[in-house]
């Protein structure tokens, strides 16, 4: 009952399965105790009937009072245990579920997030877990406990009279056959409703994130109309799903309770024929008032149970996704970055087999990938972003990656830090294959400054402190000064303790970029990756940022991506990428001497637009 299939169906942890077993046990005890109360009533009625027929005396009131008090005490104790096991244990478990889910997502490769919308993942962490929490606490224990307690009561009833037992219980299996027979219809409607809900959340998020562009282009009415349509469709799918499920649930409830009528009719017939006495029928009538009650809550939540299986499958998808793992120790001999015949594809079915397909998908699509590299490469030539890239970025030197847009420059930088895993080939740092090292351990040796700076709605101080956990205020300010942040930070209302707004909304582009550089300076990692760090800055800010970068890059292994010749003219080595391949590499002077070279042509085009010429 509580095997692996059950665990996956409801996305339960091992502790969650134990909680479900405990909740089921106490639900069974509670149901049997309640039936025991019916037994006390039956005993009282039996004794009363004996006084009417045999002139016997009723037992003392004290006896019945003691029985009632014992029943109340046992009932209170068992209901308390049931409450603790069905609610208390589950609510504590949900905290661990969310934490483990966040930990799992923290270790997933970026390729997974590239295939998921932010609204979708937010819905999984918040909405799906909330829905499962309600099912774990309100339904599983009650439903499975009801199965067991009803089976026990049924055996006891059959020992009294099999005919009345059938008349009493026939509706229960029929009702559940009807419900479980409708699972396919209701599950599909639940999936449609879930998809529609995610589209609504995605639409709201998209509208809020792009509100500036929407207003600037006078597209408010268009976006609001599209959002209204998504909300209306979601409402229709919810109504349709609830109506469909409601019809089956209510039909099942009516069928189950027809057992009351059939019990009365069958009992009356048996009494008239002299086959049973009135007290047997009375006992069955007492039992029938309670035997259906345990299923009431489960039936009312059957729709949520079906929806929960959709939510559970979404959680299990995250847990099934392969994490980027490796050794907890990283001891390279130096920090040279070496690309050896590296290929990479963003293809969801093939190229990302090593970076996060579920176990089942990986076995179906990637079983022979590692053993047949040449065949794979031949099949992915059109899809690969990088195709057999080889170069070395030496420690203490600045290696610049240049080339046309889409040539694979940013991909190389991200692969060098194992933000994605390569499809083929090897990337080594100091002689160590980075795919053999845990990404979090590996990234302790990396500092990254990208064009798109990400800041938090916090103070300047705390945004810089992200570069080094536990850094003192003095260390933060020293890094800020080296990055030329002090000239604007000290002018803010509260200095370094000024809140800068969501993603640094209160700062200029140059100021935000300098905070990013200050983080990198504070981290002081031996490898620095720069991706278009000054591309969107004006000349004045670029000069200030370049000054900060010169202090950051001193003595480090530097991999820089840029289009401007000013950014790469001082590089020790340039690697020119074109169509995912290395077209040229060498010093700036060497590449400028190649009359038909790609780098020289790029330099000439920029020099013409700038009004100067190359000798």
How does the SSE layout of this entry go?
Blueprint lengths: L3 H6 L4 H41 L6 H47 L2 H5 L3 H43 L1 H8 L1 H11 L1 H27 L1 H6 L3 H53 L5 H14 L1 H8 L1 H19 L16 E9 L13 H7 L7 H8 L3 E10 L4 E5 L6 H8 L7 E6 L2 E2 L5 H4 L3 E5 L9 H6 L7 H10 L3 H4 L19 H15 L3 E5 L7 H15 L3 E5 L3 H4 L4 E6 L2 E6 L1 H5 L5 H13 L5
Parallel strand pairs: 3-8, 3-9, 6-7, 7-8
Antiparallel strand pairs: 1-2, 1-4, 4-5, 9-10
Helix pairs in contact: 2-3, 2-5, 2-11, 3-5, 5-6, 5-8, 5-12, 5-13, 6-10, 7-10, 8-10, 8-13, 10-11, 19-21, 21-22
Sum this structure up briefly.
The protein is an alpha/beta fold and 615 residues long.
Q: Identify the CATH homologous superfamily of the largest domain.
A: ABC transporter type 1, transmembrane domain
Total strand count, please? 10
Mean pLDDT: 81
What number of domains? 2
Structural class of the secondary elements? alpha/beta
Per CATH, the architecture of the largest domain is: Up-down Bundle
Folded structure, characterized:
It is a single chain. With 615 residues, this protein is α/β, with parallel strands linked by helices. It folds into 2 domains: 4-320, ABC transporter transmembrane region fold (Up-down Bundle), CATH 1.20.1560.10; 337-346 and 383-610, Rossmann fold (3-Layer(aba) Sandwich). The protein has 25 helices and 10 strands. A 6-stranded mixed beta sheet has the order 6-7-8-3-9-10, sandwiched between helices. A 4-stranded antiparallel beta sheet has the order 2-1-4-5. Helix 22 links the parallel strand 7 and strand 8 (557-561). The longest helix has 53 residues, at 220-272. It is elongated and about 120 Å long. 34% of the residues are buried. The model is unreliable at 348-381 and 611-615 (pLDDT under 50).
């Amino acid at each position: 009952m509580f095997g692996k299939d059950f665990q996956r169906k409801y996305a339960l942890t091992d502790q969650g399965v134990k909680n479900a077993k405990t909740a089921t046990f106490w639900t069974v005890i509670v149901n049997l105790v309640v039936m025991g109360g019916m037994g006390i009533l039956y005993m009282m009625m039996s004794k009363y009937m004996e006084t009417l027929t045999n002139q016997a005396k009723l037992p003392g009131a004290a006896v019945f009072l003691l029985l009632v008090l014992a029943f109340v005490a046992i009932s209170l104790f068992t209901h308390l245990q049931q409450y603790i096991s069905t609610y208390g244990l589950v609510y504590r478990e949900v905290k661990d579920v969310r934490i483990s889910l966040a930990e799992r997502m923290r270790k997933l490769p970026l390729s997974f997030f590239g295939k998921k919308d932010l609204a979708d993942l937010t819905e999984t962490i918040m909405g799906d877990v909330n829905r499962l929490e309600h099912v774990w606490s309100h339904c599983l224990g009650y439903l499975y406990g009801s199965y067991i307690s009803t089976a026990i009561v049924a055996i006891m009833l059959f020992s009294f009279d099999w005919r009345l037992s059938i008349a009493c219980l026939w509706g229960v299996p029929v009702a559940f056959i009807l419900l479980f027979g409708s699972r396919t219809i209701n599950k599909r409607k639940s999936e449609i409703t879930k998809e529609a809900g995610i589209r609504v959340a995605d639409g709201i998020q998209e509208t809020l994130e792009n509100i500036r562009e929407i207003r600037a282009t006078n597209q408010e009415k268009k976006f609001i109309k599209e959002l209204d349509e998504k909300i209306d469709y979601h409402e229709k799918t919810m109504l349709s799903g609830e109506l469909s499920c409601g019809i089956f649930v209510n039909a099942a409830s009516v069928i189950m309770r027809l057992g009351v009528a059939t019990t009365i009719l069958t009992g009356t017939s048996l009494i008239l024929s002299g086959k049973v006495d009135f007290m047997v029928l009375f006992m069955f009538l007492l039992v029938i008032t309670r035997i259906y009650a345990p299923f009431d809550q489960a039936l009312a939540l059957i729709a949520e149970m079906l929806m929960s299986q959709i939510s559970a499958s979404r959680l299990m998808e995250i847990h099934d996704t392969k994490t980027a793992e490796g050794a907890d120790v990283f001891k390279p001999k130096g920090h040279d970055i070496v690309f050896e015949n590296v290929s990479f594809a963003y293809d969801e079915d093939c190229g990302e087999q090593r970076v996060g397909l579920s176990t089942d998908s990986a076995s179906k699509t990637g079983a022979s990938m590692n053993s047949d590299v040449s065949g794979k490469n031949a099949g992915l030539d059109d899809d690969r972003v990088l195709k057999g890239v080889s170069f070395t970025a030496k420690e203490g030197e600045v290696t610049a990656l240049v080339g046309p847009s889409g040539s694979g420059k940013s991909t190389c930088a991200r692969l060098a830090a194992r933000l994605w895993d390569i499809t083929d080939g090897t990337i080594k740092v100091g002689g160590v294959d980075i795919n053999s090292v845990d990404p979090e351990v590996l990234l302790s040796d990396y500092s990254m400054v990208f064009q798109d700076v990400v800041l938090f709605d916090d103070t300047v101080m705390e945004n810089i402190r992200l570069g080094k956990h536990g850094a003192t205020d003095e260390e933060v300010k020293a890094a800020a000064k080296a990055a030329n942040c002090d000239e604007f930070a000290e002018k803010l209302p509260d200095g370094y303790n000024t809140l800068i707004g969501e993603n640094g909304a209160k700062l200029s582009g140059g100021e935000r970029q300098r905070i990013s550089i200050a983080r990198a300076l504070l981290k002081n990692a031996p490898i620095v990756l720069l991706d278009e760090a000054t591309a969107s800055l004006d000349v004045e800010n670029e000069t200030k940022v370049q000054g900060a970068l010169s202090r950051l890059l001193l003595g480090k292994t530097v991999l820089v991506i840029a289009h401007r010749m000013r950014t790469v003219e001082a590089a020790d080595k340039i690697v020119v990428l074109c169509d995912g391949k290395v077209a040229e590499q060498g010093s700036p002077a060497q590449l400028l001497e190649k009359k038909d070279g790609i780098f020289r042509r790029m330099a000439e085009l920029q020099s013409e637009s700038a009004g100067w010429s190359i000798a």
